[in-house]
Write a structure and sequence with these properties.
Oligomer: single chain
Number of helices: 12
Shape: rod-shaped
Structural class: mainly alpha
Strand order of the largest sheet: 1-3-2
Mean pLDDT: 67
Strand content: under 5%
Helix content: over 70%
Distance between the termini: 48 Å
Length: about 800
């Protein structure tokens, strides 16, 4: 069995002569009832669903007449009472709205909020201008870096040109070395030829030596013969022959001595020449050895030059890669700056949003405190009303003897009821406001969840950016260390080349001295020595050239050292600038975690405040439902008392003792939001719409009469009546006491029958009336509602008769 509606039922006890119009709203769809049940279980407040209701068809009245309406409308039902004739009021009281109760504090708070928003906008504009300045400075720094890179590239190109010149000079030296090699080969061939000539001279010398030995042997033989001749005695002829032979021999001896002397001189000269040739050959061998050493040294220099070329190419590639890295780092810095600016903008917007949320939460707390104070005041009023109702109950027991006292007390209770009705209106408005605040709380909770997700994303993005910065810094540091090591290696190689050039200078000076000595010695040699002198002159020329080249190399090496120092200084400056930029970026990124922590703390505070607000709203909703039920019960008690004040305390009405059609009618009138099963539980009968109509026909309950056509001035109002107990109302349509309801029906009649509109069926007329009823102006309804509490109880006490009104 489904539960009953949360709104209290209405029990109205009036006399049979009072015509009553009861408009029952249609029940909600079955699909929405479980949702209502869950919402009630959770204690959340939701606005009442606006359902298009079908009210019984009522013929239109006369043209609209001003003021006086007796109507009460709840969340699920509405009550209208048609009072007797009376004069219409001259003034109407406008309804009190909750939106009109704005305080000066809220206005001041809104002004502060607008000021804060303006300040935030000005700060954002200043931040954007600062960002533009920072971007301009960064662009200038990028231009400076690009100019430095261009200068470095120009220096590298100059070094390449210098290397090309050095390679050309090396090629020239290689050609000269090849010429020297050819000339040395020629010299070797000539020395071989000279060695061949020396061999022939040695043969001649050996022959001469043999002839000399033979001559000496002949001389010794001649001396022996002379001694033998001296000892022997010769004749005159033999002595004359001997004298001739002696003279001839003496002549031969003279010639032999002269030839011997010349031969010895020649031998001495030949020995000296041979020694000199051997010494020259040794010098040639030494020169050839030195030439081979110089050629090997030149080959080593060529290899070193090739290595330097490779290193220069590697340095060029490194410079290109460094340029690419600098470009990528600049792009990364730009992306980091853009992300940082975006994150700062988001953080500022979130801070502004948090400030707005705190202001709204403060407003909610203030409103909740005001509502709490209002609820306390209402509870005090209810306690006073209960005490007053007890006092009035005792007074009414005593007032049963006097009609005058009963009328006065009924007037007092009518005033109190009007006050209660106004309080109930205020409670309903407060309930709607609480529901609106609760919906805003739900929206703020959704926004808070979105903020939490965005904060987590921002934290992850900041961590990724820091990791990328660290990786880029490590990579750049490693590359710079490698460049520094290569520069150190180049400097060591350049120092080694300097030492080698100095050694070459020393060797060159020694060679010059040796060449001078060889020139002084070779001036005494013949044609071969002259050739050697010409070769030595060419060597001198080449040595001079090599000396000039060595000087040029020395100057170029000094220039290369200066350029390397300049490049090293530029690289160190760039490294310091990059390190400084990275430190600045890290310093800028350091306050981000603190800002995130502050925002998280603010979010936790807002969550705690929202939870407290939800608890307060739950407490307010429970207190409002209790007050609504208590007010409904007090209203039903007062209406029962007004209906039968004498027999109220003596008898109790048992709804089960009523006949079936009376129970069905009572259930239909008291609570229109009940379903057929709920009515069946109350009446113990089948309460579907068809069975209700059948029971009403069987028991004499007359249907609503349809007046087709325009309503004249003597038309009567249709009401629900019981057969034999209540008569049709015979009040005139122009009755002053019917002005409030006639105002509504007159306006509806003018709208329904506008331009003499006619209806063929009752359903069409009912549909037109329902459409017109949904378009009734709220100002007219408020005017009618404000005039109802003032006169309803006078009409009830007069038994629907004329009132002083």
């Amino acid at each position: 069995m489904r539960t009953r509606s949360s709104s209290p039922p209405i029990h109205l006890h009036i006399s049979d002569s009072t015509p009553v119009h009861v408009h029952v709203k249609s029940q909600r769809s079955p699909a929405s009832q479980p949702q209502e049940k869950t919402n009630v279980d959770r204690g959340n407040l939701r606005p009442t669903a606006k359902v298009k209701t079908r009210v019984p068809w009522i013929p239109p009245g006369k043209a609209s007449i001003r003021d006086a309406s007796y109507k009460w409308e709840g969340p699920t039902h509405r009550l209208e009472i048609t009072p007797p004739l009376h004069e219409e009021p001259e003034h109407s009281q406008s309804a009190l709205r909750l939106a009109d109760l704005t305080s000066e504090e809220e206005e001041g708070l809104h002004g502060r909020i607008s000021q804060y928003e303006r300040k935030i906008e000005s700060l954002l504009s200043e931040v954007s201008s600062l960002k533009n300045e920072v971007e301009l400075r960064k662009k200038e720094q990028l231009l400076e870096r690009q100019s430095e890179q261009l200068s470095v590239s120009q220096r590298v190109m100059e070094q390449e040109e210098q290397l090309e010149e050095v390679s050309k000079e090396l090629q020239h030296t290689e050609r000269e070395n090849s010429r020297l090699r050819l000339s040395m080969e020629k010299m070797l061939e000539e020395s071989d030829y000279n060695r061949g000539d020396g061999g022939s001279l040695q043969q001649d010398r050996a022959a001469l030596h043999r002839t000399l030995m033979e001559a000496e042997g002949g001389g010794a033989a001649a001396a022996q013969e002379l001694s033998a001749l001296r000892d022997s005695r010769l004749s005159g002829s033999e002595s004359a022959g001997l004298a001739q032979q002696k003279e001839l021999l003496l002549q031969k001896l003279d010639t032999f001595e002269s030839t011997n002397r010349t031969l010895r001189l020649l031998l001495r000269e030949q020995h000296r020449v041979q020694m000199e040739s051997e010494r020259v050959s040794e010098q040639k061998d030494a020169f050839l050895k030195r030439l081979a050493d110089t050629e090997a040294h030149n080959a080593q220099l060529v290899v070193k030059l090739q290595e330097k070329d490779r290193e220069a190419n590697q340095l060029c590639r490194l410079l290109d890669s460094e340029k690419d890295n600098a470009k990528s780092s600049s792009d990364l810095s730009k992306s980091l700056e853009s992300t940082r600016a975006h994150l700062q903008g988001q953080l500022r917007s979130k801070e502004a949003e948090n400030n707005r949320l705190t202001v709204q939460i403060k407003n909610l707390e203030r409103a909740a405190s005001q509502q709490k104070v209002e609820m306390e005041r209402l509870t005090e009023q209810l306690g006073g009303l209960r005490r007053q109702a007890g006092a009035d109950r005792e007074a009414l027991k005593r007032a049963t003897r006097a009609q005058k006292q009963r009328a006065e007390r009924s007037e007092d209770t009518a005033g109190q009821l009007s006050v209660q009705l106004l309080d109930m209106k205020q409670l309903l408005e407060a309930l709607s406001a609480a529901e609106a605040w609760q919906s805003r709380h739900a929206q703020e909770e959704k926004d808070r969840s979105k903020l939490e997700v965005e904060l987590s994303l921002l934290n992850s993005h900041a961590a990724e950016l820091t990791e990328e910065l660290q990786s880029v810094g490590d990579k750049g540091r490693a590359e710079r260390e490698a460049l520094l090591e290569r520069l150190h290696a180049l400097t060591s190689q350049s120092t080694g080349a300097k030492l080698e050039t100095q050694a070459l200078k020393a060797t060159a000076s020694a060679v010059e001295e040796k060449l001078a000595l060889s020139q002084s010695e070779l001036q005494q040699v013949k044609a071969s020595i002259l050739q050697y002198e010409s070769l030595l002159d060419s060597y001198k020329i080449q040595v001079g050239k090599t000396r000039g080249e060595a000087d040029e190399y020395r100057a170029r090496l000094a220039q290369a050292e200066r350029q390397a120092q300049a490049v090293r200084g530029g690289l160190e400056q760039e490294l310091e600038e990059v390190r400084r930029e990275l430190l600045e970026r890290l310093a800028e990124l350091e306050p981000l975690p603190e800002a995130v922590r502050r925002s998280e703390l603010k979010l936790q505070e807002t969550q705690d405040r929202e939870r407290s607000q939800e608890r307060r709203s739950m407490e307010l909703s429970t207190t409002l439902t209790d007050l609504r039920m208590k007010a409904g019960r007090s209203k039903t008690l007062i209406l029962h008392f007004l209906k039968d004040p004498e027999g109220y305390w003596t008898k109790k009405v048992d709804p089960i003792k009523f006949p079936l059609h009376r129970r069905i009618l009572r259930a239909a009138v008291t609570d229109t939001g009940q379903s057929s099963t709920q009515m069946k539980a109350v009446t113990d009968a089948d309460c579907s719409p068809i069975t209700i109509k059948r029971h009403l026909r069987e028991k004499g309950l007359e249907n609503i009469k349809v007046f087709e056509g325009h309503v004249s001035s003597n038309a009567t109002l249709p009401v629900w009546t019981l057969q034999g107990s209540t008569k049709h109302g015979t009040l005139k349509a122009c009755s002053p006491d019917l002005n409030p309801i006639e105002n509504v029906w007159g306006w509806m009649a003018g709208e329904v029958y506008n331009n003499k509109r006619q209806f063929q069926t009752v359903d069409a007329l009912c549909e037109a009336i329902l459409i017109t009823w949904s378009n009734v102006p709220t100002s007219l309804m408020e005017t009618l509602a404000s005039s109802m509490p003032k006169h309803i109880f006078e009409v009830i006490d007069n038994n629907c008769g004329a009132t002083p009104y």
